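Researcher: Can you fold this with pyridoxal-5'-phosphate in place?
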Amino acid sequence: MSITENAIASAEAHSAHNYHPLPVVIATAEGAWMTDVEGRRYLDMLAGYSALNFGHGNRRLLDAARAQLDRVTLTSRAFHHDRFADFCTRLAELCGMESVLPMNTGAEAVETAVKTARKWGYRVKGVPDGMAKIIVAANNFHGRTTTIVSFSTDPEAREDFGPYTPGFEIVPYGDLTALREAMTENTVAVLMEPIQGEAGVLVPPPGYLPGVRELTRERDVLFIADEIQSGLGRTGKTFACEHEGVVPDMYLLGKALGGGVVPVSAVVSSREVLGVFRPGEHGSTFGGNPLACAVALEVVAMLRTGEFQQRAAELGEHLHQELGLLVGGGAVEEVRGRGLWAGVDIAPALGTGREISKKLMERGVLVKDTHGSTIRIAPPLVISKEDLDWGLEQLRGVLRH
Ligand SMILES: *Cc1c(COP(=O)(O)O)cnc(C)c1O
């Protein structure tokens, strides 16, 4: 057995099989490149589902982490620490909002948003106790907790995990009429991804997000934008909502917020909305810890200049131009996305998304398939144009054979 085969067999023997990774075992990484245990190099075109927007081993982020490691890493929220105020202030500023509630994982940010919206509904909007409803979109991905899978439409994510949490209404994504009809006086929030990532990088029809904004404002309903994957530079703007000129009531952030170093997530909203919480009503031992705040503070500082957003916009235009040329030739059926983020539907005759991903791996490019024959391309925003072009050449190579 090779070193790789050995490592995989031993991982499979001693871990739950809740993932089906490509047969590659990474040992080190830098920038947009990863190296496996046998010294082979791969271009990372997944970037940890956008957690690695700033690349592997980013100097600024590692320096910020190292400096904080030597000071203090954890206090719990039982005490104040000297990174917390800066982190909350700067992140709120970046979002154009007032208040931040830090958590760790994306799923926790979503859970926090659900609790916030319900409490806001009862205390501010005046919804009768226990009646609050949250509207979500079909084919959503918001995480893996029991409540979140309760409003998933993906059988794989849901099956055998019931009983399910009530209080959610599912409408087709992109359909304003359906959303309007689903709203009642007990609707407290609409929770949506401005671009559906796991569904295959689905961009809603133009006018949809502004329509959601208008409807939610009219009906006194919170518009919660899950920007955990789409936010923080990926689409060529700080937030995907900006492409449609939309400002939601609440941003959910995660993934890139931790710079690929530590898990950091946050709910960002107004003082009124997040003001529903009183001490003891919600929290997390690790949420807003000093190490997380130090790294995320650096992430926010990097985003403040706009350089990463601009890079994603420019390279993204190039990416979509090149991918667009592949459509119609028989191999690629459709390409969607914004900025450095693309969902590519490969003709099923050429193989499943998994088979295509494996062939790309053999050529030194790592991507992840999603439903059926779709692969998603989302390299770190620090990728060079030359490397991006090389990666695209490998994709063309796979599609030719
Ligand atoms: C990844 C993701 C989540 C969940 O984040 P975790 O950190 O994996 O819990 C939620 N929403 C969206 C849109 C995501 O892409």
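Model: Folded with pyridoxal-5'-phosphate in place. The chain has two domains: 3-57+307-400, 71-304.
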